[in-house]
Amino acid sequence: MEYRILKMEEAHIKGVSEIEKECFSSPWSENCIRSETVNPNARFFVALSEDKVVGYAGMHTVCGECYIANVAVSEAYRRLGIASALLGRLEETARSESCEFITLEVRKSNLNAIGLYSRLGYKQVGVRKNFYSKPTEDAVLMTKAFEV
User: Residue 148: pLDDT band by 50, 70, 90 thresholds?
Assistant: First the structure.
């Protein structure tokens, strides 16, 4: 399956919203997603197969630091390298903006995501107790440092 990674735009919001509803117990609203398209600190990208949004990822950058807000791929398109490609684009963007590291939280039970992040060089650096709700769960904090 072929896909391409593009900067998220207004036309992608509905597709991103559908993936949010599919993947997360507390999905972002379309208005929240839309706000990221004009947020000067936000860097959001979508994966498109033909013209369908099949995944997306976004981060916020502040003072040389990057925080990944979300990474999500529609279930029918998982295990095709899309999440890795999206993360690669985030990292490439972070490096181009001279960021020192990139960090994220992931549900402790999401072993597939933790495995992916670990394979990509993210290290477990802490736990945030009861970070998630619906259901309540700890978050594993993972960080990848860049050579500056």
Answer: low
d(CA 35, CA 40): 10
Rounded Cα distance between 28 and 111, Å, is 23
pLDDT, tens only, 66-94: 999 999 999 999 999 999 999 999 999 99
Q: Note whether 32 and 13 are within 8 A (CB).
A: no
Residue 57 lies in domain: 4-145
Q: Look at the block and give the residue holding tokens 């896909």.
A: 3
CATH, residue 118: 3.40.630.30
User: What tokens appear for 83 in the block?
Assistant: 């999440």
pTM value > 0.90 = yes
The count of structural domains within the chain is: 1
Peptide bond into 135 cis (omega under 30): yes
Q: Are 24 and 72 in contact (CB under 8 A)?
A: yes
